[in-house]
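Subject: Predicted fold for Outer membrane protein beta-barrel domain-containing protein, 201 residues

User T.R. writes:
Posting the sequence so we have a shared reference for the thread.
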Amino acid sequence: MKRFTVITCLLAIISFTATAQIEEQFRQRGPQTTAAVAYDAVKKGNWIVGANIADIGFNFDSDFFTLNLNPRFGYFVSDNAALGAELQLGLDIYNGGETFRYGVTPFARYYFPEGAAPTHRWFGEALVGIGGSSEEDSEGDKVFSGVFGLRAGYAHFVASNVALEGILGYTQTSSDISVGNGSSGLNLAFGLQVYLPGRNQ
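User M.O. replies:
I've generated the structure tokens; pasting them so everyone works from the same file.
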């Protein structure tokens, strides 16, 4: 009986040790959720490429589907400051028709050194451009208008050159048909941005 107890205890200790080692290996090999690269990503000469997605939805009562997508590219003219352009693309599909929105908005983005950390950065952004829309069977078809907006956002780096972003902003257009991330006014968007090193990096 004593031998059985000793063997059982030894097996329990070995099993516990093996389980702890396996858990530690799994923890080390688990999916990467953060990367300490925020300072390097926003250096002069780097590029930013990505897209924001907002207002994805479907209303079952009115059969109304909406999607807004804003692909973008930019160049860091100095540390923390990037200039670029964003495409404003939107689609509404509803019972009896559809509306397609489009535009081009150059932007200036600044990443604040205050509150910065190795894994994330806060930023502000301004954009000014033109936009229009094409509404099926409408006299307002292909109306061009000025577009401007101000945004604040948070970039969290999940890999060496990839960040997930959340952006809260105000976008306004003089067109009667909305342009960009929804109607003129406040909007919330989420994006995936890739930070590419410049040739001299």
